[in-house]
Amino acid sequence: MTVRYIKEFYRFLKHTVQSRQLLVTLIKNDFKKQYLGSYLGLVWAFIQPFTFMLVIWFVFTYGFRSAALADDTPFFLWLICGMIPWFFISNALISGTDAITSNSFLVKKVAFRVSILPLVQIGSSLIIHLGLVLFLIVATLLYGFYPTLYWIQLPYYIACAIFFVLGVSWLSASIRVFVKDMSNIVTVLIQIGFWATPIFWNIEMIPQHYQWILQLNPAYYIVEGFRNSFINEVWFWEMPMLTLYFLAMSSIFFIVGAIVFKRLRPHFGDVL
C-alpha cells in the first residue's frame, strides 16, 4: 500500500511539473480576480495584514505593556516574524478549502486534474506572502539585523508550510464539496490556532512542562522557524524532535488528504 501511495505521489508531482504553465496561468488569474475592480487593487493585499500587525503591535506595546524580550529583540520585528508566516498559512487554508467549489466549472472538465486546484489557491497566497517576506527582510535590515547564513533556510520553512497546507487543503476541500459547514469549521479552527500559537506572546510565559502542548500545533514550527532564521540564529536540525514531529504530522495530513481527495473525486461533478 505504501508503494502505491508513493507512486501516486510521483504521478501527482510529474503531472504538476507538466502542467506548470497552466498552474501559473491559473494562479495569476486567481490573484487578479481577487483584487481586480477595486480602486487600490493589489494594495489591498498588503493593507489588511499591515493594519492588523500594527494594531497588535500598538496594543501589546502601549496597551497591555507586554514584557520585553530576554535578548532585547525589538518587539515589532519579533511580532512580524511570527505573523507573516501565520498570514500565509491561514489565508492558504481558507482559500484552499473552497478550491473545488469556487472552481466548479473546471471540475466538470474531464481532462482537468482537479488535485492541482488547492495548489492554485496556495500559489495565489504565496505571492502575497513573498511580498510580506520582502517587507520582513527590509524591516530586519532597518533594525540592524544583517543577513546571515541562517537566512538560507527560509525557503525550507516556506516549503514546509506549503507541504502542510496542501495536505490539509486536499482534506478540507474534498469534504467541503459535500459538507458546506467545512468552511466555517476551518475558519473557527484558524481563529483558535491564532491565539494558541505564540505569535504575539512568548511561549516562555507558559510553564515549561506545558509548552509541549503548544508545540503540537504545526504552525508553531513554521513561526519559530522564521524567528530562528532572522533573529535567534538556530538551524532547523538543531531542533531534531520538533522537526521530526512536524514532518511526521504534515506527512500524515498529506497522505490522509490525498486518500480522501482521491476517493471523493469521482463524485465532485455529481454534487456540484
Descriptive notes:
The chain is globular. The chain has helices at 2-18, 20-35, 44-63, 75-97, 104-107, 117-142, 154-178, 182-196, 208-215, 218-232, 240-264, 268-271. The protein is mainly α and 272 residues long. The protein has one domain. The protein has twelve helices and no strands.
Total number of helices: 12
Shape: globular
Compute the gyration radius: what is it?
19 Å
Mean pLDDT across all residues, rounded?
A: 82
Count up the domains: 1
Unreliable spans are none
Kindly state the number of beta strands: 0
Span between termini = 31 Å
Oligomer classification: single chain
Largest sheet: none
Helix/strand-derived category reads mainly alpha
Question: How much β-strand is present in the residues?
Answer: under 5%
DSSP helix fraction: over 70%
- Helix and strand succession? HHHHHHHHHHHH
Jot down its keywords.
single chain, 272 residues, mainly alpha, 73% helix
SSE arrangement:
Layout: H1 2-18, H2 20-35, H3 44-63, H4 75-97, H5 104-107, H6 117-142, H7 154-178, H8 182-196, H9 208-215, H10 218-232, H11 240-264, H12 268-271
Helix pairs in contact: 2-6, 3-4, 4-6, 4-7, 4-8, 4-10, 7-10, 7-11
